[in-house]
Design a protein that fits this description.
6-stranded parallel β-sheet
Length: 337
Amino acid sequence: MRAAVVHDFDKPLSLDERPVPEPGAGQVLVRLETSGLCHTDMHAAHGDWPVKPTLPLIPGHEGVGIVERLGPDATGVSEGDRVAIPWLGWACGTCEHCLSGWETLCPNQRNTGYSVDGCYAEYAVASAPFVGRVPDGVDPLDAAPLACAGVTTYKAVKVAGVRPTDLVAVFGVGGLGHLAVQYAAIAGATVVAVDVHDEKLALARDLGASHTVNARVVDPVEAIQQLGGADAAIALAAEPEPFAQAFRSLRRGGRLVFVALPKDNELSLPIFETVLGGITVAGSIVGTRLDLAEVYELHRDGRTRVVRETRRLEQVNDAFAEVEKGAVPARLVFDLR
């Protein structure tokens, strides 16, 4: 099979021929149709984060394809099912976090395309209980970004406790942000989108944002405070400064949710203003299997729209460069068919 492989954090990915993997106990072999390109894949390929993946590595955690073969004792799916292979590749199911509905915090979890090989390939193996069932009628090219960008922002809106009377600020309108705008609007909130590209702000308005702010032109903190301040802010940008702006845009009692993981890992927040303002700061990492099922249900019912462009796997390094330059409206998806 063809696979895009990271051999060196300082070198481009190579397109290699590899044996088709064998599904082990409780696993399935998936013939991949598509795989989305997430910023996390680029961080994995460049070794940007404190905990680095072991090389060689096949990145990718937005895979969608057809179950071709079941390993021993694999249950819950059948050959021929269309499934998604998300970031949460496996969790133990027995720790306190798993038992309390927070399997995404399992300390023993395995992450697709990071701690185990992922979906930039023609085939992948996955844990049968952790694949997501893609409903009939959902385009696999849409289903791929929803497996991470969708479920991550959907969970962030939940963590933010968004209510119909809230003003919600979404900082960063891209692969994640264009979906966060929609989920906040579905929850009934008034949405203000912040970005530095007019075309992305126009997209945000088209997807349900009532207000937009170009942070290159206007101070987003001042603009949002003039609207009364944000009840909740969701930080999706790839730099720390928008996180600080999101904090300062909040009204008293506001909630700030960190989602993006910038390479620069430090942010200073004021203690005095946080305490006196009753500000809540929370981290939100992807979503559970139930969250993913709900994301697919919303999309099947026509309530969300995925904005994406397709590329071929052999274009992987050029695609990385496009995303790094901010030249992509929302999401890139590799068409592996």
